From TrEMBL:
<dbReference type="InterPro" id="IPR029064">
    <property type="entry name" value="Ribosomal_eL30-like_sf"/>
</dbReference>
<dbReference type="Pfam" id="PF01248">
    <property type="entry name" value="Ribosomal_L7Ae"/>
</dbReference>
<dbReference type="InterPro" id="IPR004038">
    <property type="entry name" value="Ribosomal_eL8/eL30/eS12/Gad45"/>
</dbReference>
<feature type="domain" description="Ribosomal protein eL8/eL30/eS12/Gadd45">
    <location>
        <begin position="4"/>
        <end position="58"/>
    </location>
</feature>
<dbReference type="GO" id="GO:0005737">
    <property type="term" value="C:cytoplasm"/>
</dbReference>
<dbReference type="InterPro" id="IPR024824">
    <property type="entry name" value="GADD45"/>
</dbReference>
<protein>
    <submittedName>
        <fullName>Growth arrest and DNA damage-inducible protein GADD45 beta</fullName>
    </submittedName>
</protein>
<comment type="similarity">
    <text>Belongs to the GADD45 family.</text>
</comment>
<dbReference type="GO" id="GO:0005634">
    <property type="term" value="C:nucleus"/>
</dbReference>
<dbReference type="GO" id="GO:0051726">
    <property type="term" value="P:regulation of cell cycle"/>
</dbReference>
Amino acid sequence: DPDSVVLCVLATDEEDEGDIALQIHFTLIQAFCCDNDIHILRVSGMQRLAAILGDPEPGAEPRDLHCLLVTNPHTDAWKSQGLAEVASYCAESRDRN
């Protein structure tokens, strides 16, 4: 549901820059985001992003952090002040565009 997506984070490391399949994947994701007015944030340092997000739960499948979608839980009570700030920034940016 693109209406519930607040932000798309595309993350790479230096070794990913030569991966043509990943770059094509990113191009398609960016086109989808642009068509649906979803803000895109490109970051480097997937290992740092993994550290910020914390370790997955024991027994969980390995995570692919190349593309993260931050979604709006459709409630007024945000559990994270950081997510509330990101949502506020995105809403203000949409109003200016």
